[in-house]
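Blinded run. Sample ID left blank on purpose so nobody reads anything into the name before looking at the predicted structure. Input follows.
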Amino acid sequence: MKLTAAQLARYKQDGFLVVNDFVDIASCDRLRRRAQQMVHDFDPHGLVSIFSTREQNRLSDDYFLGSGDKVRFFFEEDAFLPNGTLKQSKEKSINKIGHALHELDPVFSEFSRTPDIIQLVSDLGIEQPLLLQSMYIFKQPRIGGEVTCHQDSTFLYTEPQSIAGMWFALEDATVENGCLWAIPGGHKLGLRSRWLRSAEAGMKFEVFDSSAWPEERLVPLEVATGSLILLNGLLPHKSLRNRSAKSRHAYTLHVISADCCYPKDNWLQRPPEMPLRGFEVSSDRS
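Blinded prediction complete.
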């Protein structure tokens, strides 16, 4: 599957591109089954970490900051009762799994290195691509949390900007169950902030532009199972809460160029023994 000149022009203009039927249904089913098995096998005792984009400075615990080279589990913000116990089963409470699925799990590693994805990255002009981050997002029924308007480059910064996000719909994504919303052309507004490691420990925001996002320009990106949404790292996008009875599973990959600088104060870091790599298959890790 090769992107056409028209598709590349649309991506350059809007900062995002929807590619329908990029993934076959069988592959979507396989990823969903694998994620469900991983959650089933996960023992959350003493490892409760809650994902929230409304309080990013809270996410400075070692469990989160040390997940760049691991597979870790993060709960929905509304998954717990006031006494700290889960409202429902852990299978219905996990927000996401991150952030090295593409490195450490054979099923996700294979999916992340298909010829179609390799061709796609080549079409985008990303030279010497490196797979930086992967996430499995559940967007749970009734408690799926909001992701506020943001730019991926705030959290995964490179010099120059080279981040491209791939968002794979493993289930239908609609306004009802919390699909993505994006500001067409918003990637041309420039980087608003960086979330970086502080010298005093923990995380902080370095703000370049504190003006509000023009959220009146947001458009919903409703897509069917198997669709791919390409996201420029500077594109402002968000998703609303899921209060429906339907989940909205998705798998995401972020790719950068080895030609760019990836600063040491980015939150996601790898140890020397596990450097970033591209699309080559490593039997030692997967």
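Unblinding after everyone has recorded impressions. The longest strand covers residues 129-137.
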